[in-house]
Amino acid sequence: MPQLRLALSQIDSTVGDLTGNAEAIVHWTRHAAEQGAHLVAFPEMALTGYPVEDLALRSSFVEASREAVRALAVRLEVEGFGEVPVVVGYLDRSERAARYGQPAGAPQNAAAVLYGGEVALSFAKHHLPNYGVFDEFRYFVPGETLPVVRVHGVDVALAICEDLWQDGGRVPAARTAGAGLLLSVNASPYEVDKDDTRLDLVRRRAREAGCTTAYVAMIGGQDELVYDGDSIVCDRDGEVIARAPQFSEGCMLLDLDLPAASTDPVTGVVDDGLRVDRVVLRAEPLAPYDAELAGGYAERLEDTEEIYTALVVGLRAYLAKNGFRSVLIGLSGGIDSALVAAIACDAVGAQHVYGVSMPSKYSSQHSRDDAAELARRTGLNLRTVEIAPMFDAYTAALGLTGLAEENLQSRLRGTTLMGLSNQEGHLVLAPGNKSELAVGYSTLYGDSVGAYGPVKDVYKTWIFALARWRNKAAEERGQTPPIPENSISKPPSAELRPGQVDTDSLPDYDVLDRILELYVDRDQGLEAIVAQGFERELVARTLRMVDTAEYKRRQYPPGTKISPKGFGKDRRLPVTNRWREGAQ
């Protein structure tokens, strides 16, 4: 059987940085070529970054992408890698005539095979996702080919991400066309348990395609999305040959024995009306060589560590890609701000994390002590700004009482943080969690102030689990646990009035989060949730809080997405909305 050394390069791309992304592609191609790779693959839209969103509608950006991919082909040839086929994702436009709803020159999510200083083959994604965070029907028109390149006597069928996630299309077409390898380039965002789902998918598609299947994935972060890598190769029986690390940039190389290309290859139209588009790059098989690279099987992260790592990677990417080196956090002594501070220290280093304690007359001494203890344990920078004089001035001028008086304290803290941010150039982190955001348990222009919310998509019960895991991980490494035990064990409280605790306004978080997961993440209605064993009035009250808080969530900053349905692009409900579950 012909042999092929495949290189899967899971890299981090930045949207719009065509020059920087091209440099990364050249760097990792050089690395792969020096290791003797015969075929190199990069993730979906690696040249432009993903997702490009409405940049796809700017013809200037589309043309810049097209020019960049051609220039990249020339650059690889000049650097001496022209004889190594490189598969790279980019933004293209359709060359076909206009159709209803598909104007001529419409953008396409595409990939190119670069070889000999030229674009030897280009193709567009066939299945366009239009769910969750994906809006690809808004931007792109689908590809209608099954691209097949012959490399050293092996026919390699090519696909892009959703082409594997949806039934039909290029997977069965690869079998019909007699491909020896199905190679898919992907930018599949992270969410909890997706690594298991992804593995099952690749194994199943390999069996359906009847050939070895390789799935190369992106890593890093882009706004709210995190990419976890986890590139996978399975043989035709669905058995895993190799699996790359999670959340780690690098190149997985492996030697494959693959079926020889047919002397009478299938042509014309195959499954789902796809037309086979064949290009022969190297027809003759390689001389037999001793296989040395098996790719390996990287150790999987345990669920809690996986989530924590995703939060660190998401924050680090957001800061780096937007030009920030330091962050500012209001430290209350509570669990949310403590976990956010620990994540920030792991993301950028404690020396770049600035905490501000802003006690009012209702702040307990133990909360002040817990904030100071957090700073001592982590080494972050801490200062104290008393808000009592500001509070007294406002209340004297405005005569605020009750809830307005409580919220004033939060807003003074928000103003303080933003003032320091403007003065010193730190990016303010909002510590709100998914449970609070769901039911509106936050103050606009107060604790919602910030440019990024690292735990925005993390329910309160997970906040505690992550804090305990982070402390345990530190202990196992012989380090000081970063989060004070008192911040974890004491009852959560906003401390805006004497003796206040969260359960004055909310159900126990264990119960609340289970209801929220059913309503927010799974779109189940009141009756379906009650049928799960929850008390009807409690469910109805919780759902009312969620529905009436939509206007607050619209004004909350972006934050790392870890769930199947985060607040933002995943879940889009009207602010003006009189539908109430169970009230019709």
Which key phrases capture this entry?
584 residues, alpha/beta, six-stranded mixed beta sheet, seven-stranded mixed beta sheet
List the helices and strands and how they pair.
Layout: E1 3-10, H1 18-34, E2 39-41, H2 59-78, E3 86-93, E4 107-115, E5 118-124, H3 136-139, E6 145-151, E7 154-160, H4 162-165, H5 170-176, E8 181-185, H6 194-209, E9 212-216, E10 219-222, E11 225-228, E12 232-234, E13 240-243, E14 250-257, E15 275-280, H7 303-321, E16 327-330, H8 335-348, E17 353-357, H9 365-378, E18 381-384, H10 388-398, H11 402-424, E19 427-428, H12 434-439, H13 460-476, H14 485-489, H15 509-521, H16 526-530, H17 536-548, H18 550-554
Parallel strand pairs: 1-2, 2-3, 6-15, 7-8, 8-9, 16-17, 16-19, 17-18
Antiparallel strand pairs: 1-14, 3-4, 4-5, 6-7, 9-12, 10-11, 12-13
Helix pairs in contact: 1-2, 5-6, 7-8, 7-13, 8-13, 10-11
Describe the overall structure.
With 584 residues, the chain is α/β, with parallel strands linked by helices. The chain contains 18 helices and 19 strands. The protein has a seven-stranded mixed sheet with strand order 13-12-9-8-7-6-15. It has a six-stranded mixed sheet with strand order 5-4-3-2-1-14. The protein starts with a strand and ends in a 30-residue tail after the last helix. The relative contact order is 0.09.
Short description:
This protein is α/β, with parallel strands linked by helices and 584 residues long. Helices cover 36% and strands 18% of the residues.
